[in-house]
Design brief:
single chain; alpha+beta; MS2 Viral Coat Protein; 2 domains; 6-stranded antiparallel β-sheet; 42% strand; globular
């Protein structure tokens, strides 16, 4: 099983790193692992957060892995108080059959993540519209 560790990714400018610090490891099925970017905001609600949770499907023939990414927009009120005005949320669920061989699962995982990272998929997420 993977161990909780910090995750470093590039920001939108393609050169600046942002670190998501491992905050809480999963304690087992249905218990999320949590990462936060501590470089944003001054309160926990202000920080972008990734959670990953896993469990068996109903008949226990597959593992389900769910990832949720929440990115808040911060505003400063006339009183100087910072608050969250909105949140963008990315939610993905993956089902991994237990009878599938390891090399096919590895290929699936790499191709899926690389597709999500592709310029076309990123453009669709940024615009809010599927490619036409």
């Amino acid at each position: 099983m993977p161990q909780l560790a910090d995750i470093t990714v590039k920001k939108a400018n393609g050169t600046t790193d942002i670190v998501f610090t491992g905050v809480v490891p999963s304690s087992g099925d249905k218990s999320p692992a949590i990462w936060r970017s501590n470089s944003v905001g001054s309160a926990q609600a202000h920080k972008p957060e990734l959670t990953i949770i896993s469990q068996y499907n109903g008949p226990r023939t597959a593992r389900r892995v769910g990832a949720k990414f929440v990115y808040p927009t911060l505003v400063t009120g006339s009183d100087g108080r910072i608050s969250v005005s909105d949140r963008a949320i990315g939610d993905v669920t993956v089902t991994l059959p237990q009878a599938m061989n390891d090399s096919d699962i590895a290929e699936f995982a790499n191709q899926f993540v690389n597709l999500l990272y592709s310029a076309l998929v990123r453009a669709q997420l940024q615009s809010g519209y599927a490619a036409t």
